[in-house]
C-alpha cells in the first residue's frame, strides 16, 4: 500500500512544487540524484569511472506539455553527448520519450528523437530509450523500431512485470536491439502485469535467460542479489563471458553490490540522473524499498 501511495503521489504537480522548493527535501534527493546541473552529473560520472564503472546520464523530466519544453529537453541531451566527448567520460545517455513530447504526437517526438540519436551516432556513442508506464509501452517500441531502421546506436528498456514483455523482447531481438532488463517501477493493474513479486522475479529470470544467449550486448538492471546470482550462474553455465553483458544499477543504491561486482570482474553501469525535475524519480525510488522511506524521514527529522 505504501508503494502504491508513493507512486500515486509522484504524479502530483502541487506536491512536486512543494517538495522541490524545500531545501531539506532537495538535500535528501541527493541520495538518488547527482544534482540539478549537468556539471553535478559529470562530477559523479567521473568518480564512478575512476571506480571502474561506466555511466548512463539522464536529464530528468517527463510528460512535457509544450513543444518548447520538448525542444529544450532535446537540446539538453545533445549537450550531454557533447559533454561526454569533451570530458572523455565512459558514459552513454538515457531519456524518456514523454520528455521529448510523446504526449504531443508520435511524429513530433520522433523528429526530436532522431536528432538525439544522430548526435549519439556522430559521437560514436549510444542512446537508451527508457520505458515509462504501460500506456506508452507499445508507442515507445514502435519509435525504437523506427529509430533502429536508420541507426544502430539506440536501444530500449523492457520491464519484467508486464505480461507482454517476452514477446516484446523477441520482436526487438529480431532487429538486433540492445535491451536493458528491469523489473518495473510504475503502478500497473493485474490485467497487464504480474501482481505478485515472486511472479515478477520468475519472469525476470526467464527474460534474462532469453537475452544473454542472443549474442547482443544487454544490460541486466537489478539491485536484487537473487537476480544477480541467477544471472551469474546462468552466464557461467552457458559459457557467456563477463564482457558479453553488463549489470546496471541506480546512483546511490546498493553501492556495496556495485563495487563487489566490479571486484568480481563484471561490467557495471551506474544510471546517474540529474536536473531540476527530480520529484517523480525521487518518489519512485522511495517507493521501491521501505528503507528508502525511513532514510528520507529520519534525515528530514534530523534536519529540523
Explain the overall architecture:
This protein is of the alpha/beta class. The chain has one domain: TIM Barrel (Alpha-Beta Barrel), CATH 3.20.20.220. Helix content is 51%, strand content 13%. The protein contains 13 helices and 8 strands. The protein has helices at residues 2-9, 13-20, 23-29, 38-50, 67-87, 106-122, 137-148, 165-173, 197-211, 225-238, 255-263, 279-288, 290-302, and strands spanning 54-59, 91-95, 127-129, 154-159, 179-182, 218-221, 245-250, 268-274. An 8-stranded parallel barrel has the order 1-2-3-4-5-6-7-8, surrounded by 7 helices. Strand 7 (245-250), helix 11 (255-263) and strand 8 (268-274) form a beta-alpha-beta unit. Helix 9 (197-211) runs parallel beside helix 10. The protein starts with a helix and ends with a helix.
What's the short version?
By secondary structure, the protein is an alpha/beta fold. It is built from 13 helices and 8 strands.
Which consecutive residue ranges, at least 5 long each, have pLDDT under 50? 300-304
Please estimate the helix content.
40-55%
Largest sheet: 8 strands, parallel, barrel
Q: How big is the Rg? A: 18 Å
Strand content: 5-15%
- The total beta strand count reads 8
Structural domain tally: 1
CATH architecture: Alpha-Beta Barrel
Q: Strands of the largest sheet, in order across it?
A: 1-2-3-4-5-6-7-8
Report the mean per-residue pLDDT as an integer. 89
**Amino-to-carboxy terminus distance:** 28 Å
Number of helices: 13
By secondary-structure content and strand pairing, the structural class works out as alpha/beta
- The best one-word shape is globular
Question: How would you name the oligomeric state of the polypeptide chains in this document?
Answer: single chain
Would you tell me which CATH topology applies? TIM Barrel
Amino acid at each position: 500500500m505504501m508503494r502504491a501511495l508513493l507512486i500515486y503521489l509522484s504524479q502530483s504537480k502541487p506536491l512536486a512544487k512543494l517538495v522541490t522548493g524545500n531545501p531539506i527535501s532537495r538535500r535528501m534527493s541527493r541520495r538518488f540524484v547527482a544534482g540539478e546541473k549537468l556539471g553535478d552529473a559529470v562530477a559523479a560520472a567521473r568518480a564512478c569511472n575512476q571506480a571502474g564503472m561506466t555511466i548512463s546520464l539522464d536529464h530528468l523530466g517527463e510528460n512535457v506539455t509544450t513543444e518548447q519544453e520538448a525542444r529544450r529537453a532535446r537540446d539538453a541531451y545533445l549537450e550531454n553527448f557533447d559533454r561526454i566527448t569533451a570530458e572523455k567520460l565512459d558514459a552513454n545517455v538515457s531519456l524518456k520519450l514523454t520528455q521529448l513530447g510523446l504526449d504531443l504526437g508520435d511524429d513530433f517526438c520522433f523528429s526530436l528523437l532522431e536528432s538525439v540519436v544522430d548526435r549519439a551516432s556522430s559521437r560514436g556513442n549510444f542512446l537508451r530509450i527508457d520505458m515509462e508506464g504501460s500506456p506508452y509501452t507499445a508507442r515507445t517500441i514502435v519509435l525504437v523500431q523506427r529509430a533502429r531502421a536508420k541507426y544502430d546506436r539506440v536501444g530500449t528498456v523492457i520491464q519484467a512485470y508486464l505480461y507482454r514483455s517476452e514477446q516484446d523482447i523477441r520482436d526487438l531481438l529480431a532487429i538486433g536491439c540492445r535491451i536493458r532488463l528491469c523489473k518495473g517501477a510504475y503502478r500497473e493493474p493485474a490485467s497487464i502485469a504480474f501482481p505478485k513479486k515472486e511472479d515478477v522475479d520468475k519472469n525476470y529470470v526467464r527474460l534474462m535467460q532469453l537475452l544473454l544467449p542472443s549474442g547482443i550486448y544487454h544490460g541486466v538492471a537489478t539491485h536484487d542479489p537473487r537476480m544477480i546470482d541467477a544471472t551469474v550462474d546462468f552466464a557461467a553455465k552457458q559459457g557467456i563471458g563477463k564482457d558479453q553483458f553488463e549489470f546496471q544499477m541506480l546512483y546511490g543504491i546498493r553501492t556495496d553490490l556495485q563495487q563487489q561486482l566490479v571486484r568480481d570482474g563484471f561490467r557495471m553501469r551506474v544510471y546517474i540522473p540529474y536536473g531540476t525535475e527530480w520529484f517523480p524519480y525521487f518518489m519512485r525510488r522511495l517507493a521501491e524499498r521501505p528503507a528508502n522511506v525511513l532514510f528520507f524521514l529520519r534525515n528530514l527529522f534530523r534536519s529540523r
